[in-house]
Design a protein that fits this description.
This protein is 72% helix and 0% strand. It is mostly helical. It has a domain of 126 residues. The two termini are 33 Å apart. About 4% of the residues have low confidence.
C-alpha cells in the first residue's frame, strides 16, 4: 500500500486544492476533527461551502486529503533536509526529526486525541506507513554517513538506530515542554548514539 494514497487527488491537478488543504489543516489542528465543520474550513479558505464540496464531497474526504497532503509535504521536506550533504549529519537529523515530530510538540489537548482517533478511524494504516517511510529515510541517511562499521562493532544496524531514534522522538514529543526542549533532547539522543 502506498504511504500517501493518490486517490485523494483524483482528476486533473487543481491549483486551488493545496490552499484548501492548508486551510483545512489549520482548522482541524485548531478545533479537532469532530468540532470542525465544512463551513469553518470554507471560511478560512475564503471559498463558499459549495465550492469546498466540489473538491471534497464529505468532511471525511477532506480530512483524509488534508492528512495525506501534510504527510507528503513533511516527507518531501525531510528528504530535502537529509539531502544537504554539506551540513553535519547531526544537524540534518535534528532538523528532520523536528520537521516530522517536533513541530507537533506544543499541540496538546483534547483536539490532538480527537485527531489521532480520526486518523486511525478514517485513514487506516496510512500514518503508520508514513512513519515507516520516514524511518527508512533516516536509515538511509545513517547508512550514507559511513558509520556502519561503528554500528557493526556495537552489534547494531542503521535501521535499528533509526527506529530507536524515532521512538525517542515520539517520547520527547510527549514529554517536552517546548519545541526547543524537543530539539535539545534529539541532539542529546543523537550524541548518545555517536553523532
Amino acid at each position: 500500500m502506498e504511504a500517501y494514497p493518490a486517490a485523494d487527488f483524483r482528476g486533473a491537478p487543481d491549483p486551488r486544492k493545496p490552499a484548501l488543504l492548508e486551510a483545512a489543516l489549520e482548522v482541524f489542528a485548531r478545533h479537532g476533527y469532530r468540532k470542525t465543520s465544512m463551513e469553518d474550513v470554507a471560511q478560512t479558505a475564503g471559498v463558499s461551502r459549495q465550492g469546498l464540496y466540489l473538491h471534497f464531497p464529505t468532511k471525511e474526504d477532506l480530512f483524509r486529503a488534508t492528512v495525506c497532503h501534510s504527510l507528503r509535504r513533511s516527507h518531501a521536506r525531510v528528504v530535502e533536509i537529509l539531502g544537504v550533504d554539506r551540513e553535519p549529519l547531526e544537524e540534518r537529523l535534528v532538523r528532520a526529526f523536528d520537521e516530522w515530530v517536533g513541530r507537533y510538540v506544543e499541540d496538546r489537548g483534547s483536539e490532538v486525541e480527537d485527531l489521532v482517533h480520526a486518523c486511525r478511524t478514517l485513514l487506516g494504516n496510512v500514518v503508520d506507513h508514513a512513519n515507516a517511510s520516514f524511518t527508512e529515510e533516516i536509515t538511509r541517511a545513517l547508512s550514507r554517513s559511513g558509520l556502519d562499521p561503528l554500528y557493526a562493532r556495537r552489534s547494531l544496524t542503521a535501521a535499528q538506530i533509526a527506529s530507536t531514534l524515532r521512538a525517542t522522538a515520539e517520547g520527547l514529543k510527549r514529554f517536552s515542554r517546548s519545541r526547543d526542549d524537543f530539539v535539545e533532547g534529539m541532539r542529546i539522543a543523537l550524541r548518545a548514539v555517536g553523532h
